[in-house]
């Protein structure tokens, strides 16, 4: 009797499962594309879309990504690129949280924005886009403002969170929620030609240290603005951090702040003095 695992095995081509065969398997057995992908990866068969990942990630790494659940808070300049890259990498479950709709000033840099999408919820546009590029990925759109009040509920079940916010007060609330849930937080921020990336682990006070002198309002991006290229660069660095954390390889930016100056094409790493906190 033919079963989904047998079908996947028999229709693989050199340990790769072509897209058309994934579609056929889903239809034949009445399952989702996500289920087909999970069965393939579990049996050491790589969906062909990921074949260019093979020199960087093992099939077990790819399975770890696919079975992960990552929250992206903010779906604008940074968040759009983060979401798209996570989906293309094969992160199987992505929770996208953003209360806003697209406005005209978003068109210069936000990946999911277009004239046709003006007035459309950013998370709705993200959901449509991911269905187009990788329908095996489950995207959960949440059109809501993240806060300390709803944060634990929104991030429930996530292995880590990615900061793509533009308000420092909310970033600090996100850091507190991640600390409470004991999950890592990959943080990125942009302004003009500049940006930085760091990763806060449970028990660390990285963001509180970085923004210790902040008083009120948004960050320096309100003064310097944001061109199209800066969010793409910083978002890609955030996704690299996510990939390392989910697969357990490489050296994350724990206790370190990667500073990017695209105007001078310089990068520096600063050590962030850590004030350790008690974790529950």
What share of the residues does DSSP label as strand, in percent?
Answer: 15-25%
Give me the CATH fold name of the largest domain: Rossmann fold
The CATH superfamily of the largest domain is identified as NAD(P)-binding Rossmann-like Domain
What's the total helix number? 11
> What is the approximate shape?
globular
Write down the secondary-structure element order. HEHHEHEHEHEHEHEEHHHEE
Q: Please tell me the total number of domains.
A: 2
| Mean pLDDT reading | 93
Q: Cα-atom Rg, whole angstroms?
A: 19 Å
Based on DSSP secondary structure assignment, what is the total number of beta strands? 10
The secondary-structure class comes to alpha/beta
Q: Identify the CATH class of the largest domain.
A: Alpha Beta
- Supply the CATH architecture of the largest domain: 3-Layer(aba) Sandwich
What is the helix content?
A: 25-40%
Query: Which spans of ≥5 residues are poorly predicted at pLDDT below 50?
Result: none
Main beta sheet: strand number and arrangement? 8 strands, mixed
């Amino acid at each position: 009797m033919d079963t989904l695992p047998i079908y996947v095995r028999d229709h693989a081509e050199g340990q790769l499962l072509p897209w058309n065969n994934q579609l056929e398997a889903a239809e034949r057995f009445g399952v989702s594309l996500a289920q087909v992908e999970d069965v393939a990866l579990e049996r050491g068969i790589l969906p062909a879309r990921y074949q260019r990942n093979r020199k960087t990630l093992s099939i077990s790494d790819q399975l770890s990504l696919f079975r992960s659940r990552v929250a992206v808070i903010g779906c604008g300049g940074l968040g759009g690129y983060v979401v798209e890259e996570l989906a293309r990498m094969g992160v199987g479950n992505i929770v996208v949280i953003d209360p806003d709709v697209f406005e005209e000033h978003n068109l210069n840099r936000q990946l999911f924005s277009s004239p046709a999408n003006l007035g459309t919820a950013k998370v709705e546009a993200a959901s449509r886009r991911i269905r187009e590029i990788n329908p095996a990925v489950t995207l959960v759109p949440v059109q809501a403002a993240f806060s300390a009040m709803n944060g634990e509920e929104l991030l429930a079940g996530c292995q880590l969170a990615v900061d793509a916010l533009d308000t420092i007060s909310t970033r600090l609330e996100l850091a507190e929620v991640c600390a409470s849930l004991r999950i890592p937080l990959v943080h990125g921020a942009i302004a003009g030609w500049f940006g930085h990336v760091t990763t806060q682990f449970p028990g660390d006070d990285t963001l509180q240290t970085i923004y210790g002198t902040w008083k009120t309002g948004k960050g320096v991006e309100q003064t310097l603005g944001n061109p199209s290229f800066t969010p793409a660069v910083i978002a890609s660095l955030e996704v690299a951090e996510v990939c390392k954390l989910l697969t357990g390889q490489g050296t994350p930016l724990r206790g370190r702040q990667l500073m990017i100056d695209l105007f001078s094409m310089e990068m520096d790493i600063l050590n962030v003095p850590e004030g350790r906190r008690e974790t529950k």
